[in-house]
Amino acid sequence: MTLDAVLSRIDTDLTGATDRLMELMRIQSISTDPDFAEHCQTAADWLVADLQSMGVDASKRPTPGHPMVIGHVDGDGPHLLFYGHYDVQPVDPLELWDRDPFDPELQETPAGTVIRGRGSSDDKGQLMTFVEACRAWKEVHGSLPCKITFFFEGEEESGSPSLIPFMKENADELRADVALICDTGMFESRVPSIVTMLRGLLGEEIHIKAADKDLHSGMYGGISMNPIRVLSKILAGLHDDTGRITVPGFYDGVTELPDDIRAQWQGLAFDHAAFLGDVDLSHPAGEQDRTPLEMIWSRPTCDVNGIWGGYTGNGFKTVLPSEAHAKVSFRLVGDQDPHAIRESFRAYVTEQLPPDVEATFTGHGTGQASVTETTDPKFEAARKALSDEWGISAAYVGCGGSIPIAGHFQEILDMTPMLIGFGRDDDQIHSPNEKYDLESFHKGIRSWARVLDAFCS
Ligand code: BES
Ligand code: ZN
After folding, report:
1. CA gap 249, 300 in Å, rounded
2. What letter does residue 372 receive in the DSSP assignment?
């Protein structure tokens, strides 16, 4: 009965909730680009004010990078921590957007109404599902159902450089019974899901240098080494013909799926042809002896994310470049050690260099893979709450993406992360024309109300 009142309140205030989300989306909180640092401050201020308007004791907490937002509400029963990130990815290439990425709007599509704009799905829309559930609860009951800590980060999309020190310094303040994280999606875009396995990440940038300046490729071509030739040969050799990664020691720590997770996944009839078909592909390109679900959730990968050098402008220039560069990322699983792989990768690249060529490296973020046990009865309670809301039995799933804080909650704060999100495969997160279905937002808010009810009453 009381839950019904909260759900009704959510339904009647959906326009208000959507307007608030769009206000937050108008703030250009791109964390990776220093030019947007002020906007990250503005987003943090906006969240502090919004939490305060609900009676939450909220503050903006400085870090050497972008600020954290922390809010507390006292109460009885379990102590829940809720995490989301208010920063977003850059918007380029801007010309592929159908509108200003920071001027969100509701759009009608054949699949329903969507909230279009940067951050709608990753992660402002998802973050606000929990905030709006709390707002509705407060409006109906006058207080929140239990002790809640809100924890919003502004550096998730740029490797979270301030996160570990902040978590260590504020461990006592942050520690709760469970960490709820809303930054993931639904299986096949329709099955409500709790993610129990996330991949880790390692980013490396390679800079290859040969001659001390760009050269005329007629005058010097043939006698001098081209660094793009060196780089492309090394990159091409990172996979063998079966899709295995060739970096020595790369598979150390890669574990086979635990039996319970394998059993959970066997119940999921993953339609990989549809998944690939949606993006105009057809052939699973990973390790050829693995299933499509293993390829995206439980096997490690290596991908070149960017490659540049030489002349790439209009027309043609017969140049022999002096430098070539690439950004390479690895998704990690099991107990793979990102630092060991970094060392091995650098040595592997360096030993393949011909005379006159040198390589330097810039390291980017690292994070280990994480697996969550679902033995705490809260997991089954959350699964039932999600199933009730969506009318489909909720699933335990993996996620190929990386959310390093999930592992930090386990290691630094000894807390269990519970990852529940309402994104869809076609949300175009990190890409032009990002969207969040209004249904994801609405039912996401309702889902959290049900989870709060299940945990706290
Ligand atoms: N929300 C994503 C994680 C995600 C990706 C969830 C795909 C569901 C599907 C998160 O914000 C993200 O993009 N994480 C980065 C890692 C970070 C260290 C840059 C990622 O996975 O690339
Ligand atoms: Zn995200």
Report:
1. 13
2. -
The residue type found at 62 is P
How would DSSP label each residue in 76-130? Answer: SS-EEEEEEE--B----SGGG-SS-TTS-EEEEETTEEEEESTTTTTTHHHHHHH
Average pLDDT of the chain, as a whole number:
97
Domains of the chain listed by start with CATH number: 2-198+369-456 (3.40.630.10), 200-254+300-367 (3.30.70.360)
Which mutation among 183, 301, 370, 405 tests ligand 1's pocket best, with the greatest number of atoms within 8 A of CB? 183
pTM above threshold 0.90: yes
**φ, ψ dihedrals at 274, nearest 5°:** -70, -40
Residue 156 Cβ < 6 Å to ligand 1: yes
Q: Is the CB of 295 under 6 A from ligand 1?
A: no
Backbone φ, ψ for residue 125 (5° rounding): -65, -40
- Judge if the upstream peptide bond of residue 252 is cis by omega within 30 degrees of 0: no
Q: Residue range 181-210: average pLDDT?
A: 97
